[in-house]
Amino acid sequence: MLPKLKLLALLATAGVLAGAGVIIDAAAGPPPRASAAEQSAAAAPVRQAIPGADATLTAGSRGGGYKLKITAPPGALALAGTDDRALAAPAPAVDADALAAAQLGWRAQLAAAVAAERDPAVTGFTVTPAAITTTSPDQRPYFTARLRSKPGAPLHQRYAKLGSVSRDEAEAQLASNISVLRSALPAGTIERIRIVPVVIDGAGGLFGLEVDIKVTDMTRLSAHLGDVIDGLATGLAGNPAAVVEGLAINVIDDQGRRAGWWRADRAGIGMGIPGPVLAQGGIGGVDRLFPNLTGGPSPIRSIAGK
Q: What pLDDT is stored for residue 21 in this prediction?
């Protein structure tokens, strides 16, 4: 099963390293200070993806492009679904800090990758949650990433279809995937579903999707992880045919146990925190046919022959 911060297999070619700072070119002098226009352009996707956040381009000390420093507002560092009473559950006994950090870090990845696509001098980002003086060791890896090896280098393999579908089309695909997932899981497993669009550039049609799933018992997912992780991504995210910026899958059960998987396609980053219940299982393939309505990524072939 996926350990924390291990790249998902579908995104393994991205070559993204979770490291702080930017590449330093010792032969280069310090780059010019980012202009007001550059600062505004870089901050715009951050402010949409993380409402109330701000961002500043900071130059490397001896050249090497810019790092996008994101300051998240109070409340942005939170477990998924805590703002919805229908998803209420006891606090998780493990991974709470990491799950909250991954959720915020994923939004930062989506926004920073769009900023880096538009400004080839942006090489990476950091996130600082407001009103928090220290972060736990479990949180820190999710708050920084290098997006390109040096200024001007490509982010990774180009995803030409990003932004090619509307929010209505993407949400219809996710709703279809959820319907198939219900049929694959034991009857009555899913209690509540919430789909949350994460807008990055409303005018440009760039967004990600988050799906929060309340289930009766996390153990019921252990034999169906392919349907959860890859089935829900059908037609949406996970390979160069991706049509949305990313997909977050958060699962909560009645006992408060949690698991999560996050894809940020333009950034080429995939993360998984399966929790102790699902950590020992393999992902496998899908057990049902997930119709591809958008022309985006197709699911892995079924291992059950259904």
A: 32
